[in-house]
């Protein structure tokens, strides 16, 4: 029905209908507005940022022969950097230096190229002129990502040194070693060779890559392509690389010569036959997995995984398995729940599993923040708790997700019996606390508190001392754990400033320790929380770079 209204009557007839809307409609409208705002922010971010995926020798060695056999690397499993498009590439190299601990002067980058035969290889090194451009100018075509290979040369003691000068005559080759007895292939390194040179001239170097004697007889094969069929051809060692049409980014597979052996003792005596087998095996495996996978997807569509983290999980993990953020959700209790189940019924499932009556449970949604930390963001509302589990989304979720992560807040009496969670107002925020001991060089989770946003840390020092088991008047220092990627940020908190002025909110983490004001801090290696967290972060970076190093402690001390 169409109704006409006089212009002069408009103000009397039309009015703001907010007060007449049902609560669930208000919630729906609010969610739609939040989603629109999130999409708007994402579009702005897409215009301002780009993803740079940096592959290194470590990635090739980790993946080839385990996760993949053809080509060099799966870029979805290498380190990715979220970088502003306007950042000069020279500045990006500084970021890489901090993450990988490779000084700028020891870095050389290669662009990747997709070839006509569908392989994907390093194509050429970045020029000096390109390195002064912004990262946005270096992207491949119109893609939102830039893929690079970071070439780093290491001494025997694993210290980097400047990459050798590369001329137009030099080509970069990658090498894989095949063992027909073990039926395994692995990445062993790369070499810069002269295009006019011959494979015969570098056989000693190739043997050195794999630890063979210098005069070991080996056979070389070029890995050319693997789709839609495998092409891997024998290389004549007496012909030049140019005559063999071998160039930058090409892959040479080699193995011990079987010239004086009975090849029938091996199922796949040479690289090409092994590649054929792996290719056929993958095709067969994919076919076998398609049908069950489809059924699995159809079944999974009916269910949602809900991962519930509790104080017990935080206490178990922090300082042992993790140091930053609060919990590894892959190691907390998971519930497989039908999507249409009302959340109120899910709470009964939790009550059976954990022995916590429904009336004593309060749930918090998690969110991934812009600084990549992952924290509880807000409690579920009464309106949300009457919805089905499928209607619930994490704060940062952009679309339907088969998984939901929750924090279960349960308050216990001294006799460990649960009681109803305290009523909260918009003025109250939930903070999590970690205690650091500089003598033992250990950090642990000690609990959480609701505090008034307008209050000051000074007002809760007694409670914090109680959480730690200290005397009520023990002097302590507080630090906020802000983020840990791409570098650690942990800042001192002024106890006289309000939580609001310190920009602390729901889900934030406060680390605290005994004050060292009247002590000689030189007696400790890491006297304060920020230094300890930086130390732990450095250890993790080293472990990622050199997975074969067993004693990180010894390595770290040796580098000081």
Automatic annotation (TrEMBL):
GO terms for biological process: ERAD pathway. The keyword Protease applies. The keyword Protease applies. GO terms for cellular component: BAT3 complex; nucleus. Residues 107-296, 361-541 form the Ubiquitin carboxyl-terminal hydrolase 7 ICP0-binding domain. It comes from the Eukaryota. One of its GO terms (molecular function) is misfolded protein binding. Keywords: Hydrolase, Protease, Thiol protease, Ubl conjugation pathway. PANTHER family: LARGE PROLINE-RICH PROTEIN BAG6, UBIQUITIN CARBOXYL-TERMINAL HYDROLASE 12-LIKE ISOFORM X1. Belongs to the peptidase C19 family. This is Ubiquitin C-terminal hydrolase 12-like isoform X1. It comes from Nicotiana tabacum (Common tobacco). The gene is LOC107760244.
